[in-house]
Design goal:
The chain is mainly α. The protein folds into 3 domains: 2-95, Arc Repressor Mutant, subunit A (Orthogonal Bundle), CATH 1.10.10; 101-189, Arc Repressor Mutant, subunit A; 219-325, no CATH class. Helix content is 65%, strand content 4%. The longest helix has 24 residues, at 191-214.
């Protein structure tokens, strides 16, 4: 495996370009950076080395070396041709990105184009100072400009977007784009929208934790179980007080499921119960009817047709609900 420079001596230097640090180093695995730097060193002298020797030299597993080479190839910094790997010029790559994206923004142009919008200029400067130590890469200016155009975020929301990703140690472009897409899908444009979204998310998490605790679950809820809860809270607009009534119906069942709880809650929704009182009144009425049926059974011959008909008509409404929630 040979290493050669892909560019002329005009681009050759032993120093690491600043753009490599700002664009690639922070998001790359530490071993991958180690591989890149050593290969760059070998490149200067047109040295030859195979994967096994590279693994031994860097004290890195062969699999990690192979993955690292693939990573830098996918990033466009390594160019594989037969058994030769050429190391692309990082500066050329980043300059080409700016032209390929067909944007005019660079650090100066981005701010100049927004000179009429003081708030946007302040937002860009705040992002640069707060999350990039004042040395934000030129391509980020273009990306921020595109994010503003695509999602129509307010300036405060854009700063909040970068703070969200920074706090999660995921300030790389794919993650920022994914979060921005998610916020946009939830109709977030202003800080009021974002605060409402955070509040709803916090409330949802409280309800999920409360349900898990009341059911004695020590594991995380599955994706399907969370989907049930979202249906109860968002589609049915039920509060925890109403949901808890359904949870209590699981106490007499050794093996319950979210599907069983969902049947109960869906039954209430289909009966147009919207408040805790309406559900409680219904349960009291059905409990009273059940007592009356038992009292009649104790007094008369159970073979009587009229009694059986009354019992069948009354209990038929429970047939799909495990005989009406098992323990009214």
């Amino acid at each position: 495996m040979n290493f050669e420079q892909s560019d002329s001596i005009l681009f050759s230097d032993i120093n690491i370009p600043d753009v490599f640090i700002s664009e690639y180093l922070c998001s790359a695995n530490g071993d991958y950076v180690k591989i890149y730097l050593y290969c760059l060193f070998l490149c200067k002298y047109n040295s030859e080395i195979d994967v096994l020797d590279l693994s031994k030299k860097l004290s890195i597993p062969i699999k990690t070396v192979e993955d690292g080479i693939k990573y830098w190839t996918d990033q466009g910094l390594f160019i594989k041709k037969n058994k030769t790997i050429k190391i692309a010029n990082v500066k050329s790559i980043e300059v080409n990105k700016l032209y390929t994206l067909k944007v005019t923004s660079n650090p100066e142009d981005a701010i100049a184009s927004n000179s009429k919008n003081i708030l946007r200029t302040q937002a860009i400067n705040e992002i640069n100072a707060s999350f990039f130590q004042g040395v934000m890469s030129p391509t980020w200016y273009s990306d921020i400009d595109n994010l503003f155009k695509r999602y129509q975020f307010d300036e405060d929301v854009m700063v909040a977007l970068f703070r969200y990703c920074f706090d999660r140690q995921a300030l790389h472009k794919n993650y920022v784009q994914a979060v921005a897409e998610g916020w946009s899908n939830n109709k977030i444009k202003t800080m009021n929208d974002l605060e409402k979204y955070y509040l709803e998310a916090e409330n949802d998490n409280k309800i999920k934790k409360s349900i898990s605790k009341k059911l004695g679950l020590t594991r995380n809820l599955s994706q399907y179980e969370e989907a049930y809860i979202e249906k109860w809270t968002k589609d049915y607009n039920y509060s925890m007080n109403i949901i808890e009534l359904a949870l209590k119906k699981t106490t007499s069942k050794a093996n319950f499921s979210f599907d069983y709880i969902d049947k109960i809650i869906t039954d209430w929704h289909e009966r147009n119960f919207t408040t805790l009182d309406s559900v409680n009144n219904y349960l009291k009425e059905q409990k009273q009817k059940a007592k009356e049926i038992k009292a009649m059974q104790a007094k008369v011959n159970p073979d009587q047709i009229s009694l059986n008909k009354y019992f069948d008509d009354t209990s038929s409404q429970y047939s799909d609900l495990d005989k009406f929630y098992t323990n009214l």
